[in-house]
Amino acid sequence: MALKRGLSSVGVQKKMSSGSRLRIVIILLFSVLTLLVFFVGQGLYISDQDRFQSDFSKQNVDWRGRLASESIKNLSTKEVIDVVTTSTADSGPLSLDSFRNGNLSVSWKVVGVEASIADKATSQSNQKSTDLKQVNSQVKEGKLLDDDHSHDEPTNTLRRQLRDDKREKHVAGLVEQDDDATVKLENAAIERSKAVDSAVLGKYNIWRREVDNENSDSTVRLMSDQIIMAKVFISIASLQSKHDLRKELQVRLKECQRALGEATTDADLPRSASQKSQAMGKVLSKARGQLYDCKLVTGKLRAMLQTSDEQVRRLKKQSMFLSQLAAKTIPNAIHCLSMRLTIEYYLLPPAKRKFPRSENLENPNFYHYALFSDNVLAASVVVNSTIMNAKHPSRHVFHIVTDKLNFGAMNMWFLLNPPGKATINVENVDEFKWLNSSYCPVLRQLETAAMKEYYFKADHTTSSGSSNLKYRNPKYLSMLNHLRFYLPQVYPKLDKILFLDDDIVVQKDLTGLWSVDLHGKVNGAVETCGESFHRFDKYLNFSNPHISRNFNPNACGWAYGMNMFDLKVWKKKDITGIYHKWQNMNEDRTLWKLGTLPPGLITFYGLTHPLQKSWHVLGLGYNPNVNKKDIERAAVIHYNGNMKPWLELAMTKYRSYWSKYVKYDHPYLRNCNFSE
Question: What is a single molecular function from GO for this protein (predicted)?
């Protein structure tokens, strides 16, 4: 205050000498410089880095900073500035011309430099104090932007990098989880689409909205439970003479049964189903209050369960019988084709009934195939698919054997549709005079009364194995099925022959099989056993000492359908004699059931060389889950089972592999109403 009064008095005395004014200015300047030097020493002027290093956590400036700011403000009043301006304007040495021309004395230069430094320091101090307050206010309000990092300390930079890295990892984790979830959903949709039978797609769509809902059948299940409980309470009401309640339950039961019908989801139910379910719930609640007895209810539910089990077993047996019956029958179209071809064949003159290139039939340097079938269409698919995928069709020879009934039709079909440059020959098994009951044990057994009774007496229940309808197929009565054990007798001049069933399709060239080294074995076949499936104990009766002493129950089974036989080794090992021995021992069918695979496993035990599985893929006649890639990679696919591709009960997903080798535009097929 004294200083201010002094300055005021100086301002009043305008006629004061210039020397006294100069002293006042110098005193003021040195006072400002003294204050600035003191506060600089105390850390008032912090650098930009020091200012940000405090992490903006302090809310107020240091007390020294506040004191300095107040002092500077007090010194920088309007009166002081006016005095300094007036003094410098009136003094000659401090005039603007002197500054421009540089005509200052040494003392004035020092004063001018010190004054400029003081002015700069004062302005910088005010600016930094203002910046610090703004930064602190932004920290308080959370408005400090993250992207303004021009004055960051290394510590803050590292912290920000860690924060950014954490954010990036979190985002990457979310993206990865989203990708995994998408892949799982896609895989689940693919598996669900594979499990849907194409025959059902006409009335059911897996993409319908109710399928996505886990409780899409909640009302259906509720009504089913209500129907069961209504039946229980009706029975109990009859026992306890609750006739009115019984009638009411019966009325509601019929309503619910009509509303439920054959619905499997809530979307299939009529609109009135919910109301009827509620009405049934009220009646059941009433019945529960009057009739509920835990022991009685439990007994009734147990009786209903036993009755349902018996019905299921009966229906399952009936279904198996119908399936076997359908597999045994010949479709009308195939029967029509066989009859038409037979008529045409016997109308031909004998000279036109012969096939060309008969000289190749006994040439061991060619690729020979054995095919035993009574199905013209099936045999044509085997031959066509083999030739169409063969590299050198002219070197392939097909030996077809059929029965007397289909001999004319089989000949006529291949006379009308020759297999390109390949050689083909058709024979009648009934013309093999050496194949008689005195030589062949199975023929003798098939002629016995016990065997005929087993096959043709439907209500017979005492014979062994009569409960298994699979083995009561008339195909086992045909010698075509057993002719595979007599290959050296049928083709005495051949060294090797590839045996094919008539329910297979060839997809690749098979000539590589002739170069496979069988290592002295007779039979080259694909093994079919898994961990415990299709092993010997599945086919043979190991409770019989003849079987248990000679065979390993865990030995791996193999498949008929595509088998490479070395006929030279066959003759050396007397395979046909081994077959006769075991067939005679099984006359009472105690060693194995009927069929050709069990005696084949016994006959070729230890004499079978396993082929790569890609040569022969099985199961297309019974297994809906055969891998599509395995099918496409296979050289031969086999429709073993009841669902043959030429039957209506064939699985549609596999039928196209077979049907593409059928000439549906052929006149004979059109006349017999064949359709794809």
Answer: polygalacturonate 4-alpha-galacturonosyltransferase activity
Q: What is the largest CA-CA distance in the chain?
A: 163
* Strand ranges of the sheet holding 423-428, from the earlier edge strand across to the other edge: 423-428, 396-402, 367-372, 496-500, 562-566, 523-525, 608-610
Q: Decide if 430 contacts 403 (C-beta within 8 A).
A: yes
CB 276 within 8 A of CB 256: yes
- CA-closest candidate to residue 662, choices 372, 384, 339: 384
The angle at the Cα of 137, spanning 133 to 142, to the nearest 5 degrees, equals: 145
In 64-81, which positions are buried (b, 16+ CB within 10 angstroms) versus exposed (e)?
Answer: ebeebbebbeeeeeeebe
pLDDT digits (tens, 9 = 90+) for 112-136: 434 443 454 445 445 544 554 554 4
CB 375 within 8 A of CB 334: yes
**Exposure b/e, 17-49, CB count within 10 A at least 16 = b:** eeeebbebbeebbeebeebbeebeeeebbeeee
Residues 323 and 545: their CA atoms lie apart, in Å, by 35
Give dist(CA 7, CA 10) in Å, integer.
Answer: 5
pLDDT at 384: 96
CA distance 674 to 676: 7
Task: Indicate the helix (H) or strand (E) that contains 274.
Answer: helix 273-291
**Residue type at position 633:** R
Q: Copy the structure tokens of residue 256.
A: 């619910």
338 closest CA partner among 385, 384, 379: 379
The answer to whether 540 touches 598, Cβ cutoff 8 Å, is yes
C-beta separation of 355 from 414 below 8 A: yes
For 66, list phi and psi in degrees, rounded to 5.
Answer: -65, -40
The position carrying tokens 């984790």 is: 173
pTM across the whole model: 0.58
Spatial contact of 364 and 330, defined as CB atoms under 8 Å apart: no
> What are 619-643's pLDDT values in tens digits?
999 899 999 999 999 999 999 988 9
* Residue 113, phi then psi, degrees to nearest 5: -65, -45
Q: Which of the 8 DSSP states describes residue 555?
A: P
**Inter-CA distances, 331 with 327, 378, 433, 644, Å:** 10, 12, 31, 11
Nearest by Cα to 662 from 383, 410, 408, 425: 383
Token pair of 225, please?
Answer: 């439970």
Helix, strand, coil fractions of the chain, as percent rounded to 5: 60, 5, 35
Neighbours of 581 (CB within 10 A): 14
